[in-house]
From TrEMBL:
Keyword Oxidoreductase appears in the UniProt entry: yes
Pyridoxamine 5'-phosphate oxidase N-terminal domain span: 6-134
UniProt name for this protein: F420-dependent protein
Pfam short name (any one): PNPOx_N
Family matches, as NCBIfam families: Rv1155_F420
Amino acid sequence: MSTAELTDQVVEFLSTGTRTGKIAWVSKDGRALVTPIWFIVEDGALVFNTGLDTSKGRALQRDSRATIVVDDEKPPFSFVQVQGTVAFDDDPTDLLRTASAIAERYMGPDLAEQYGKRNAVPGEALVRLTPTKVIAAFDIAD
């Protein structure tokens, strides 16, 4: 399945449990780099936080194109690949809100505020990846 939007089935898959995203970008010297991220789906975009001065942060500010892959490593295996462009938001209120929501997903409600505050500090930014292409394959081994 290929589309430019996040379907209900894709959003459900992306939002289930604590699956991490693997974000890929191109470094300044042309190398392809990948790292895991925590994220949430919000208003048709994948939302995550990153440091503005990290390799990923600098690269995405220079070239807004990125791809995030999320997979289920258990049979019957599934994955979603979201290609798109990113936009940065360093508004402290938005950053704290999303950092706390992301923390709640991955660390649970008891630690959401603590991790949200830890990840919503100066130098951090909220990043929204808006899809330009979505590829999904569910239950591949069936």
